[in-house]
Structures are given as C-alpha cells and as structure tokens.
C-alpha cells in the first residue's frame, strides 16, 4: 500500500528511507548526521557577480534603445536632385570613410576621410587621424564604436572648408542590411544628415540570408561588371544588392541603403565609382589609413580589418589579404605585406 511521500517498504526500503528520499527530491542533496538522520541543508554560496558581463548587458540594452530611436529617422529614398538626374548630373564630390587598426591593438585606430571629385574620382581632400576607441566591440553595434570618430572627421571638414564637403558618403560596412535594419551606414547618415551607402565585402547573414550553395550559384551567374541580384530576406524585404563591381572581380560586393538614397541609385553610384572591386572612395580611405599606420608605426606593418567584414559579425581572425579584396587591385596588394 502506497502513502503520499513514501514507497512500499518491501520494494524500496523503510518508510524512514522513503521519507529521506522524498526530502532529497524536494529540497535537493543534503548532508546526513548519524543514524541516517538529516543534518542541516548545505547551502551553496552564490557565484560572484560578473560585473563586466552585467555592464555589457546594460550597455547593449542602451544601444538597442538608441538604435531604435535613430532608425526612425532613416530615409530609404532619393532626396537630392542629383540622384534623379541622368548620369548624376550635379554630383561633384563623393566621400569615403574607413578605420584601420594596428594589428593586435583593438583600441587605437586610424580614422580616414577622403573626398573624391565626381565623375573623375580624383582625391581632392584627405585626413587621417589616430583615434582611441573606448567602446567595446559588440556584434551588431559596430557603429557605437566607430561612428563617433567618423562624425568628428566630417565636422572638422565642415569647419575647415565647407566647399569640400561630400554630397554623399560611401561607408565600409552595411546599411539596412543589418540585424536590426540599422547598420553603420545608417547610423553615420542620420547623425551627419548626409546621404550614405553601405558597401560590404562579405554577406552579413541576417533575415534568412545565407552564404549557401544557392547564393554561390547566383554569384557564379554574374558575368560582367554591373551584373547584380537582389538580397531578399525571409521577411520579404529587399535588404540590398550583390553587385559585380568590375569585370575582373571574382567576388561581388554587397550594397545597401544607409540614408537619403534609394537602393537603385546606391547601386548605380557604387558601380560608377569602381575601378577595382572596392569603390574608389572607400579604397582610397583604406589605402591612406593603412599607409598612415605603416609610416607612423613601422613595427606594425599589418593592420586589422573591419569586424563585420566576416559576414557573421565576428571579429576577423586575420587581416584580409590583397587577393581577398581584389585580384587586380595593386593598391591593396602593396599594403597587405
């Protein structure tokens, strides 16, 4: 006969043992005294509070709120007259920004801003400045780490010579092709008020986008410079375009809207700025930031790339090689030594 809290003595042992077993099941393991009498329950000390992890969670929650607020100001259509003109008539200056890190140092970086004439694509302004990035790198929140120094560079140019201010910025990173639809190109665009385009070297796998066999097959179907295909997420939203930027490029680049420009205009603009795989404004910003580090920090001839270039949002395990950027780009090949 079974009673609540005990088992059959003939099968499971005495009622006292059953009682103890029931206590163990309810209250967890205990230390027994003499005669199988239960002793005081052993209380485990709570583990030490991971203050760094707690701070990271609080920071991420704050950044998520700020991202959401700024995202409400993103404009994903054409706003400038030159964007509607054939051949972008009226566009005279295109900017490019980039950050390069000293290898092994994730705090000190060289922020570079260049402005090129359009359509000639000649550099008419450049600035390189070492900056200290105090915000931690958190996947999906790269802008909070990198954008402040880029905004400062643009503000310095505005103060020094407004006539050289870019009419549009090309950014090494993503725009609405992002975990929460608000990448570094969106962030920079909203804070500066400038039209911005995100240009990434690798596919950020969000909203069901995957670098799978189907995606690779689509890439193989790109035959000539200017060929492209839409990046449509599981949500049904078109997040960007994969663009074969020049005939000799083996890999596409990934173009997405940042701010104040349509995807169609963004793709046309990026294509018109490409001599090699990477559009010239970003390429020149990258070359100059790496050259600045090479001259001023000769013991660090290799520089780290962009954390979100991996496509997963994780920091790269090694600096990209010149071949990874463009098989036909002598500027990059010369710097990746």
Can you offer a commentary on this structure?
- The chain is built from eleven helices and nine strands.
- By secondary structure, it is of the alpha+beta class.
- The chain has helices at 9-12, 15-27, 51-71, 81-84, 142-160, 184-192, 213-220, 263-272, 280-296, 322-325, 330-335, and strands at 93-102, 108-117, 123-132, 168-172, 196-200, 228-232, 238-243, 253-259, 303-304.
- Strands 1, 2, 3, 4, 5, 6, 7, 8 and 9 form a nine-stranded mixed β-sheet that branches.
User: How would a textbook summarize the main sheet?
Assistant: 9 strands, mixed
Radius of gyration: 28 Å
Question: Distance between the terminal alpha carbons, to the nearest Å?
Answer: 82 Å
Low-confidence parts: 1-15, 18-34, 312-337
Encode the helix/strand succession as letters: HHHHEEEHEHEHEEEHHEHH
Structural class: alpha+beta
How many beta strands in the DSSP annotation? 9
Shape: globular
Work out the helix count.
Answer: 11
Helix content: 25-40%
Strand residue content: 15-25%
Mean pLDDT: 82
